Amino acid sequence: MKLSGPFIMLLWLFGLWVSPGISDARAQDDDRLFAVHGIEVDQSSKTATLARQLALTEARTRAWDRLIKKLVAAEDAGLLPPASDPLLEQLVRAVDIRDERSSATRYLAKVDVTFSADAVRDIFTKAGVAYTESSAGPYVLIPVFISGGVRHVYDEHPWRQALAGADRENRLIAYHFAKNSFTARRFSSAHLLEEASPDMLGTVAHAFGVSKAVVATATVGFDYAKNRRKISYQIGIGPLTEAEADSMAARQGVVVAEPDEPLESLLARAADHVMTEADTAWKARTLVTAGQGQSLISVIAPVQSFEDWITLRNRLSGISLIRSLDVTQIGLPLSEFELRYIGDLEQLTLALSQARLSLQKRQQGYVLTRSEPTSEQQDRDMGANVQGNDPR
Predict the structure, then answer these.
(1) Is 122 among the domain residues?
(2) How far apart are the C-alpha atoms of 217 and 326, rounded to whole Å?
(3) Do residues 81 and 48 touch, judged by C-beta distance below 8 A?
(4) How many angstroms separate the CA atoms of 189 and 182, rounded?
(5) Is residue 121 part of a domain?
(6) Ranges assigned E (strand) in the chain
(7) From residue 56, how far is each of 33, 59, 86, 111, 288 by CA, in Å?
(8) Which CATH number does the domain housing residue 70 bear?
(9) What confidence tens digit (pLDDT) does each residue in 267-303 have?
(10) Total domains in the fold of the chain
(11) Judgement on whether residues 275 and 336 belong to the same structural domain of the protein
């Protein structure tokens, strides 16, 4: 390793980080990716003890099925073994029970099941399936509800409530809602929400300090052929790179009510469609083949202070595709290191972008920089792109 300048302290800082920091952060990310939350069980038997055993067996079985659906390419799901007691004993690392209730013969609960990431990867490798190891977000989510020609954004409208009540724990993409604030209204004008282009949404994302902004619009309509109410939904997301433009471009769809279905239930189904489609697009972009080898890339990073290193450490630590990091030169204003990762370079670049890091090929090699704009850039983008009246 080469030292550039008097950076023994910086070297010590890195010594604390490189091995334990990456592995600890990856363990936290694994706990989120390889877990299924909120499985509702309700079993009856001769005794409450037997009912509880049946319920927990059901929860682990359903959790395995949901984990496959969440992580594995749909066309490969059939290659994996079905749930069985011996398999689940090998795969399940923890079972957490909440909202537990029981009587003499009945047992009800919500159950969270955490799988051993290494054991699951081993099963995936033996089966040769494609799966994702990448999560995304948090993205800022702006729900727009249109009913009777009236647009609602920041009030507590039914569409916002439907998205808030959807299953967000078991998604690949994490979201948080835009609050009703001056900043939110300043960067989310009616003009912007109507267009919701990737570039416009990039401005919104920068304003909220996240990698992407999502506008989810639901419009109440009527299906005259079926004589039922319907929800037309549209998803806009940005900013998008050229590589993301095809798979993560704006999406839209329609959900038609069942006979006598209330609006609340219809919106809940539409919310599930929105989040499932976004997750499906993300998974398609991040699939890796189980057991594939690791790649190596040398990277230069501009570093101006110890604080810059702390930020870089925190952001790189949460990227599950990165398997190891070796420092080859440490100092200011440039340091160099090598990353070992799985997947391809495009997927690594995408994963880095979720951590607000930009990887670019330049004359001197691959350069890794922080991608958030300065406040001056935000003001310039806002002035150029955001016009019009505040939404409701």
Answers:
(1) no
(2) 45
(3) no
(4) 11
(5) no
(6) 2-4, 35-44, 92-102, 106-115, 130-132, 136-147, 150-152, 173-177, 213-223, 228-238, 251-256, 287-289, 295-302, 322-331, 334-341, 357-362, 365-370
(7) 21, 5, 15, 8, 31
(8) 3.10.28
(9) 999 999 999 999 998 898 889 887 677 889 999 888 7
(10) 3
(11) no
